[in-house]
Amino acid sequence: MFTVTAKVRLRASDAVDIYGDEIAGYADAVEVSGVLVVPGTSVEFGENRQDGVSVELTAHFPKEWSGDLRGAKVDLPAPYGDGWDVVGNPMPYMPENTPGRWNMPVGLVRSDG
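Now predict its structure.
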């Protein structure tokens, strides 16, 4: 199977705005090789945003990855592109259930337009 090297920017912020809400910040990118990308769906936004579209992918991370991806951003090589947001808090499958190379499906979403 063909895999890619993803660049993962983990959430790293201790700044807050005047209302006490966290201001998003990200650490330097970490390269993760051997990521299997599965194209998902795309949804057009409709009349109010005629050029708008939301695209979803699933990136299957290799067993070697052990970081917390909650709130992270992922950059992928062409044709997928940069700026994908991690959906939720991805968790790996139990080791007993994953004899192969990948054990953590990571939902990614990006909106354009």
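DSSP finds no helices and six strands in the chain.
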